[in-house]
Write a structure and sequence with these properties.
The structure holds two protein chains of two kinds. In chain A, about 40% of the residues lie in helices and about 15% in strands. By secondary structure, chain A is of the alpha/beta class. By secondary structure, chain B is α/β, with parallel strands linked by helices. In chain B, helix 1 (about 15-25) runs parallel beside helix 2, helix 1 (about 15-25) packs across helix 6 (about 175-185) and helix 3 (about 75-95) packs antiparallel against helix 4. Classes of the chains: A alpha/beta, B alpha/beta.
Chain lengths: ~400, ~350
Amino acid sequence: MRRIYLDYNSTTPLHPGVLEEMMPFFNTKFGNPSSLHFSGREAAAALDLARCRAGKLIGADVDEIIFTCGGTESNNLAVAGIARRLKAARNHIITTSVEHSSVYDQCVRLENEGFKVTYLPVTRQGEISLNDLEQAVNERTALISLILANNETGTILNTEGVREIAKKAGALLHYDAVQAVGKIPVNVIELGADLLSLSGHKIYGPKGSGVLFLRRGVALQSVFIGGEQENTRRSGTHNVPAIIGLGKACEIAGAELEEYSQHCARLRDRLQSGILTIPDSIINGCLERRIPNTLNASFPGHYGSGLAVKLDLAGIAVSTGSACSAGRNEESRVLKNMGLTSRDLLGALRFSVGRHTTEKEIDYTVQRLAEIVSAENSIGNKLNIVNLDKL
Amino acid sequence: MKSKGRLVAAISGGVDSSVAAAICLEEGYEVIGVTLKLKDCDDSRERRKACCGADDFIHARLAAAKLGIPHYFLDLKADFARDVLTYAWNEYRVGRTPNPCVMCNFHLKFGALAKYADGLGAEGLITGHYAELERCADGQINLRHAADDEKDQVYFLAMLTRQQLSFCRFPLGNITKMQVREKAASLGLSNAWKAESQDACFGYKGENFSRTLAEYFEADMPAGEVVTEDGKIVGYHDGIHNYTIGQRKGLGIALGSPAYVAAIDAENNRIILTTNPERLKSVCIETSKPNWLVDMPDEFDCEAQIRYNQTPVQAHVVKHGSDKTIVNFKTPVTASAPGQLAAFYNDRLVLGGAFIDRVVQ
């Protein structure tokens, strides 16, 4: 059966150049970068090259890059690390109601530990109000953590003016840029970010690799302790091959950003036109401010999980939302907090295109999707059980 | 190769359902595996099985991958809590003995899951039950005892409607458990020699189902008296739900000779004991909510089974209207319990079933 992968926001295949770069570090260059001898030095030098490449992609200096095991760890470390470090002086966190669960759930946990958290509301387009932010911020605010590009809708947050508000209050600013990096230009200086998270496997790097950018001079309380790696901010032996791969992926993402983003936008827009020919379909999120590869569409009256299963059986991979919350027996928090009706958000599907997507695949997908939706409409066999689950 | 049609297979993670799916796959059907999630994780106490069935889920996924079929998890936790747990607890509370497996089959496996399979465009649902289905030319569908007597599970299927049965595929009906295990091994399934997991889908270690339910519902069941048949108080109980009719072990009361639970008197919150095993025997039961798989006359002879591990006995059944049925046993039957299912057979054929309401001694 023909297989079409339209879930690049969930993960991406390794770029061949990345794999090639990683290979020696599994065997011949197996050293531990913390060792003082030649073998360790060899690995440490390679790690530092990865640091340069990652830093270059986001406008950070080499000493501002902390390697982690991925986006979730980076987000957890950013939020909990800053909150716990500053607790005595500042015990307030501001975030949004549409964050990825690795920020959102961390904030909920911190609330249980005694922190105060403000969850900013968003508009139907997924934008925050600067006025709300100004109202929320105070002298006790330790951190403002915002998702730069939403993983479910692709909406790019309106960040203009945010850094000024943060600065005025003396609050630190963290961006979850996991879905933004590699798709749009991301620069920590332009954003005024003190912290920023990115993930390797979303940009054709290996799974189990990530970066937390931590601006020079900002301290956090680490989560892992013991080995003092990453200048004590992330203990544990480095996953050298993954980090090398991440570095290479960052280099490629930077070099090919414009070309890649145009490729994605062209295919995504083709998909969007096709989907809009399906009666009653709606596009969720902000059409103007959106990462180029992502499309979130609702088929009201249908169930996204049911459509996703039927597409899967037709060889087409899409998702109903974040892969990190797929199929949990609940509605999408992100879409709900954007104000979608229950009917619209239950009928939502996320499509994300990437490097290997072709026009033919897009056309085939639209055709099959239209058939499935139309069949459900006519014979009424909508999968009316929404709680498709995963382990 | 053109597929014979699409079937959904309920894959539990056990060997039976995996092999059932494999058999249909070999017959040329397109098979889609679905695993039910019935309960939440609970790490508060040690379970008999892994918390929430996570071990089964892994075997289910491995089996589906081995067979090369698509596989999904379906969350029926709310259905399970409502249609199985709440039902069971409501029965225990009034001194009856529920049959959760019968309800789980009716509402979940052959209810919600079947509906899901239908939504996927499947023409049938495969399960690993040991039972045979015979599809007659006139549209009648006959449920028959499985070839493997030891594993036969028709008792738990007797309350399915004819419509539900017509959607079922039971590929294990004519083979033995040993053949199933051997087939699983030859297919390289990880669960080929896994231990049986028939009972206790909702139990904790060292705890019976009713006690687990009481904790689940945070129920505060009143303590009460344990009495002999002539009303003498011989001890106290910690809730009538902890007792079943015919129970001998764990009573913690010495009456000189072995004592049995003869009756559960919910109205007076009392457990009634007897030392005479003959008192556990009954010759007649009254049942309700019958389900007939074969059109039956108002009166007929058949074999009746009143719990899973009981050999069916000869009986005479009399229908009283559409709900009530009186079952007269030709030989007395031990420990009939209200709430349990009475299943009726004619040789290998399942005639139907009904729930026991009253036991006449």
